[in-house]
Amino acid sequence: MYYIDGQFYQLGYKQKISFFVVSLIINSFGNGLSVATAMGSAPWTAGAANLSNLTGAPISLFLAFFATSVAFLNMWLAMHFNWPRLIGNIVFGMSFSLLVGVFANLFVSLDIRHLAWWWLLPIDIFAVWTIGVAISIYQRVNWILHPLDDLTNILRFDYFHGNASKAQMSNFAVAIGISAVCFPFSHQLVALGLGTVVSFLFQGRNIAWADRHIFKRLVHGDITGQA
What are 50-65's pLDDT values in tens digits? Predict the structure, then answer.
């Protein structure tokens, strides 16, 4: 919904599609860039990268698996089975998975990992920041969400009384656990670093900041997915 002059207005479909496309591209860009820097990715992307490193399968495959699995989990946590919401979750998850692979390959091909660490670190933190901005946008539009971000939305409003930080950290704890499970088998951790720490500790606050400052007239719609 949009808030203008003391009134709430429903977003039209053109507005929803525009916000969806913008946020999808920003999120995929941020995740792909963070993977390419090797300075630390968002925890779920890092989890997928470690599974990819362990098995040799593409990172997009594991991101797609996470998206599909969590889409069904969301229906259970929301205690309401909603076919449009489920399909939207999966469509977003699949699109996101493919685009992350595209952006990651693009930035790797540009050989940015050979930059000095004092360049890579701010680039990585910027990438993590863009992810939070994207999440803020499509959580407020609440039309089509990535399943993992829909999970954060459900946890935030149904289980943590609106606290974005607690919801995000609970979500991320599982993702970091996936990377930890991979380590005894691969003897290596990839895509984990300072950027992951920043994401784990501050992404919820980043989302809350973006709620107030990025498209600040855009407010959270009906959290049942019917906005």
Answer: 999 999 999 999 999 9
